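Internal tracking record. Fields below are filled automatically when a chain is submitted to the structure queue. Please do not edit lines marked as system-generated. If the sequence contains nonstandard residues, flag them in the REMARKS field before resubmitting.
Queue: standard
Priority: normal
Entity type: single polypeptide chain
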Amino acid sequence: MNFKNKVIVITGAAQGIGQHIADAFRAQQAIVCDIDIQPGCYFQGDISDTAILDQFISKIITEQGKVDYLINNALPIMKGIDDCTVDDFNYALQVGITAPFYLVQQLMPYFNAHAAIINMSSSRAHMSQPQTESYAAAKGGISALTHALAVSLREKARVNAILPGWIDTTGTTYTGNNNAQHPAGRVGVPNDITQMVLYLCSDAATFITGQEFVIDGGMTKQMVYHNDQGWLYENQ
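SYSTEM-GENERATED OUTPUT FOLLOWS
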């Protein structure tokens, strides 16, 4: 994997998984153009606002003139049916779906040969906890957008989605059932996601597009019934 002087655009990179991805590319001497609503990135701003995205894009193209990889990583808000307003819901979709679509649309003329787009979805695109509607809808949308873009951008850019499960970004050491509930035997860490991002952007993955990669330690493949794997149903 040689990313020297490659131009990487990453949203939501001030902390967590996005920051880990950005740091990994920087360590390989890539040119990272990241954006976050929090300070500390190449550009600060709210990606729900297309005017902010226009300024971000203009800065990238003025300074770099091309884009090799786009990582749509920014997190939409998570609110449920009981307390999520229509404005909240629309904001989640703007961050989670509209902004990635707009970035692809506007950056498309500047994609370099062998460009790649990685959309950060979630295992919540396929399964849910209560009161997570805004987040689940945004992640389901970005998964669907992935295969649509992969077909439309054929021979222009490869487009894939990564669906993380429980990825701890705090450095916490887990023991016991937190690890045991995962078939892989542990809670995930940011590097589990970063390594897949690097692979999908590399020349080793030039035949992979339109795909979803679930990285969750096997959780979404594990069937859970009463008295199975230590799980007990209690009707309280």
